[in-house]
Specification:
about 40% helix, alpha/beta, Arc Repressor Mutant, subunit A, D-Maltodextrin-Binding Protein, domain 2, 5-stranded mixed sheet, 12 strands
C-alpha cells in the first residue's frame, strides 16, 4: 500500500505503461496485447500494482472488469504522466515524420475539431502515417490552469485571454472567425434578419460553457453577452459548441456561435444565420505552446502542420 512519496529510482516505470493500458482496456488480455507482453506477465503486473496502491484497481463484475474509484481517479493522471514521458524520450535533434511513432497531444475545443480537424488529420496521415494525435477536449474552466497544463501537452488551440500572458508561452495565429446568431427557421418569436439587443434579451438561450455566477466571464460567449449588456434567460447550458445548433433547431431558442461552425450545420438542421447586433469581438484562434518545445524538430513539424491545416480552411 502507498504510504508516502516513492523515490523514482525505486519504481519500476514499466508499470506506468501497464497501468495505463489496464485502465484503458479494463481487460488483462487486451492490455497485454497492447503492451506486447504475455497474459501471465500482465496479470503479474496487475498484482504488483494492486499491492502498491492497496486497491483492486480492476474489479470483476458480471460483464467484465470495472474501474475501482481509485483507478478512475488515476486514469487522467497516468495518461498525463505517460504522455509527458513519451515526449521527453522522443525529443532529439532529428525528426523523420515518415518513420516516427510519436504521439502528440493537443488541447482543443470541439468547435476547433469541427472547423479544421478533418484537414489536420488528413495532413498527419499523409505525411506521418505512424504519428498519433491525441485531441483532448478543452473545458472553458481549464483555461485557468493553463500555467500547469501547457507543460503537460504539446499545444492548445484557443483565442487569446489575459490568463495566457505567461512567461514562456508562445503562440501563432491560425484562423479568424466571427460571432453570428442562429435560430430555427420556424422560430415564432424572431423574424428579423438582424435582431436588436432587446429582442435577443427576450428570447430563451442555448449557452455553451456559460457560468452565470462567474465574473468577469471566462467563456467567450458569456463575455460577448456581457459586452452587449444582455443578461440572458439561459434555457439550456451545455459543455459543447457542436451541440448548440441541435439544441436550437426546431425551437424558439437562440444562440450565439462561430460562423464557420454555423455554416456547416445550418442547412441540415433548418437554421437561419443572423447578423449580430452590437459590436462583437472578432474570434482569433491561436496555437499555444511552451517555449521548452521551441527547438524540438518534432514539435516544429507539429506546429507547421497545424498551421498548414488552418491555412487550407475556406473563407467563412
Amino acid at each position: 500500500m502507498v504510504s508516502g512519496p516513492a523515490h523514482l529510482a525505486n519504481l519500476d516505470l514499466n508499470l506506468l505503461v501497464m497501468l495505463r493500458e489496464l485502465i484503458r482496456e479494463r481487460n488483462v488480455t487486451r492490455a497485454a496485447e497492447r503492451v506486447g507482453v504475455t497474459q501471465p506477465a500482465a496479470s503479474a503486473a496487475l498484482s504488483r500494482l494492486r499491492r502498491h496502491f492497496g486497491d483492486e484497481l480492476l474489479v470483476r463484475g458480471k460483464g467484465g472488469y470495472t474501474l475501482s474509484p481509485l483507478a478512475a481517479q488515476l486514469a487522467e493522471q497516468v495518461e498525463i504522466v505517460c504522455s509527458k514521458a513519451e515526449r521527453l524520450f522522443a525529443t532529439g535533434t532529428h525528426f523523420d515524420p515518415l518513420s516516427s511513432q510519436r504521439e502528440f497531444t493537443l488541447l482543443v475545443a470541439d468547435y476547433t475539431i469541427a472547423v479544421m480537424g478533418t484537414e489536420l488529420v488528413r495532413l498527419v496521415a499523409r505525411e506521418a502515417p505512424g504519428v498519433r494525435l491525441h485531441l483532448r477536449m478543452a473545458r472553458e474552466s481549464l483555461a485557468s490552469d493553463v500555467a500547469d497544463t501547457i507543460h503537460l501537452i504539446d499545444g492548445m488551440v484557443a483565442p487569446p485571454a489575459s490568463r495566457f500572458r505567461l512567461s514562456g508561452l508562445r503562440s501563432v495565429e491560425l484562423f479568424r472567425d466571427r460571432w453570428v446568431c442562429v435560430v430555427s427557421e420556424g422560430n415564432r418569436l424572431l423574424r428579423a434578419n438582424r435582431p436588436t439587443l432587446e429582442q435577443l434579451a427576450s428570447l430563451p438561450w442555448v449557452a455553451p460553457f456559460h457560468d452565470s455566477d462567474g465574473y468577469p466571464p471566462a467563456a467567450p460567449l458569456s463575455r460577448q453577452l456581457t459586452l452587449f449588456g444582455i443578461r440572458p434567460h439561459v434555457a439550456v447550458r451545455v459543455e459543447s459548441y457542436q451541440a448548440v445548433p441541435s439544441l436550437v433547431a426546431g425551437t424558439d431558442r437562440v444562440a450565439l456561435i462561430q460562423e464557420r461552425l454555423a455554416a456547416t450545420v445550418a442547412p441540415r438542421l433548418g437554421l437561419r444565420i443572423l447578423e449580430c447586433p452590437g459590436d462583437p469581438e472578432p474570434i482569433v484562434e491561436k496555437l499555444w505552446w511552451h517555449s521548452n518545445y521551441e527547438a524540438d524538430p518534432a514539435h516544429r513539424w507539429l506546429r507547421d502542420t497545424v498551421s498548414r491545416a488552418a491555412e487550407r480552411l475556406p473563407a467563412p
